Amino acid sequence: MQFHQVTFRRGQIWGARFAPDGRAILYTANWDDGPRRLFLTNPVSPESRPLGFDDLRLVSVSRTGELALMSFDGAAPITGGDLSRVRMNGGAPSPVEHNVMSADWSPDGRLAIVRAIEGVNQLEFPVGSVIHTTSGWISSVRVSPRGDRIAFIEHPVRHDNRGTVKLVDTTRTGRSLS
Q1: Distance separating alpha carbons of residues 54 and 44, to the nearest angstrom
Q2: pTM, 2 dp
């Protein structure tokens, strides 16, 4: 495995994903105390192109180039943010869901989300169908390439990064992996 630096400014990166072509990289960052903004870069070029979407954080990129963006509610929100979707090549974000902590696109274009409701985090796939709940919090949701399983980290204590990697299938059968 080789690592290759693709950004060269001072600031903080809030998340990155590969574009559908597998080469370009989309990421959210705030550089030089500027606003949080979405950027596109390519490993062969040291330049990053701003795509805009100020104060939204990239959560996921679909196979067709649709972005899942989330409003940002601080470093450790407990109520989640607003999830929007927009085409990678532009347009206005369309609101999708509220109280969302994390999300990922499935291969067929459906969203898996973690929603914060009444002190619990619930994993929904598809949206509206609860397949896992915890009184702690859930992060790093990823749908498998076949769309039949979802991996995530379950943190039993709020505001604590310790947790267990879990895997659940669409029949709601889950197991711990670590």
Answers
A1: 26
A2: 0.89
